[in-house]
Amino acid sequence: MKLIDMHSHFFPATVPDFASRFANNGWPTVVHRNAEQADIMIDGKVFRPITHACWDTSKRLADMDLLEIDTQIICATPVLFAYHRPVEQTLALAEWLNDQALEMCQPAPGRLKALCQVPMQDIDAACKEVSRCMENGHVGVQIGNHVGLKNLDDEGIVSFLHHCADIGAPVLIHPWDMMAPERMPNYMLPWLVAMPAETQLSILSLILSGAFERLPESLKICFAHGGGSFPYLIGRVDNAWRHRDIVRQDCPNLPSSYMDRFYVDSAVFHPDALDLLVKTMGAERIMLGSDYPFPLGEQVIGELVKTHPTINDSVKSRILAGNAAEFFSLD
């Protein structure tokens, strides 16, 4: 079966010295341990170890060949969003990253595609940059699930999503800057607990605020990591909507009725979870996403879908490639 992996990350081998350029600290940098291993550093501390698969196109293509991946869509690692900085600084980083992404794809433009990133703290600048990138060859945009204390129902963010619909830019929503880190100092709990909750918060922000009522149905929007905890808890949300007026005050329809307005990826790591996802979202709303090349991603990309014991081949084909081809308008 054809495989299109629509959720993978990159991190450049080097990052410009934005700390010196803008006279402030906290910018991610890269320190290489050897040719294949490096650390992302923030203020002299290790944020995350990474491997050359993050920056080496030949390594990525070799892995794709080994796993029989036809096409992979790359996007920046979310620690690079930098929404808390002055817009001109975040824009400078975004422009550089977006050009780097296209350069990484250049050796195999038929197999590698890129999502851009934009300075979401300034909606006008974000709209301008996503338009530039779509004209230059990006196939969509990745944004974080919140900007500071602003969730996706913020009017500025809704305006940006409307602009994406207008120019035909698909949107991947990726959780980042997770809630309550002070309560989860160990065991990668922010990634294991807060990250799924952040995604559910994002989806419910659009549904319960009535934002989907104001956004055009042409908007293509996808939430990473199988929609986080949302698919498992939609029954609880519907129950709350039926019985509490404060839940439905801005949401005119049953929350589950909006599930045809967005997509999720397949990164759920267990056949029962994938079965629930198909039953909840519908096979036409799920796309193969691996989170490559990170340890929390699917290590054998597509294996969960391909080996699922009860999902038929037609549904598998849609999840593995067909839905993404339509979502991103790929040949």
From TrEMBL:
| Claim: Zinc is one of the keywords in the record | yes
GO MF term set? aminocarboxymuconate-semialdehyde decarboxylase activity; hydrolase activity; metal ion binding
Keywords of this protein's UniProt record, alphabetized? Decarboxylase, Lyase, Metal-binding, Zinc
List, in alphabetical order, the GO biological process terms annotated in this UniProt record. secondary metabolic process
Q: Which domain of life is it from?
A: Bacteria
Amidohydrolase-related domain residues are 4-329
EC identifiers of the protein: 4.1.1.45
**InterPro entries, alphabetically?**
ACMSD (IPR032465), Amidohydro-rel (IPR006680), Metal_Hydrolase (IPR032466)
Q: What class of enzyme is it?
A: lyase
- Give the UniProt entry's GO cellular component terms: cytosol
Q: In which pathway does it act?
A: Secondary metabolite metabolism; quinolate metabolism
Q: Name one Pfam family in it.
A: Amidohydro_2
Q: Which family does it belong to?
A: Belongs to the metallo-dependent hydrolases superfamily. ACMSD family.
Q: How does it assemble?
A: Monomer.
The protein, known as: 2-amino-3-carboxymuconate-6-semialdehyde decarboxylase
Record organism: Lacimicrobium alkaliphilum
